[in-house]
Amino acid sequence: MELTSSSHTSFAAGVALVAYTIGEVMITGFAYAARNWLNLKWLMSLYYAVTIPYLYFIPESPYWLFTRKKYDELEACLRNIAKINRREESEWFPHYTKLIEESRALKTTKTKKKSKKREKVLRFLPRLILCGCIEFVTMLLYTTISYGLAENNGALSPYTNFIIGAGVEGLGYLVAGFAIITILGRKFSLITFALLTAICVLAIPFLTASYPIIATLISQIGKFGVSAAVSVSWLYVPELFPTYMRGLANGIFVFVGSFGSMLAPIVSTAVGEKNERITNYVYSGLTILLVFVITTLPETRHRSFDDDEEVDGVSQTEDDADDKY
Question: What is the DSSP string of 69-110?
Answer without folding.
Answer: T-HHHHHHHHHHHHHHTT--HHHHHHHHHHHHHHHHT----H
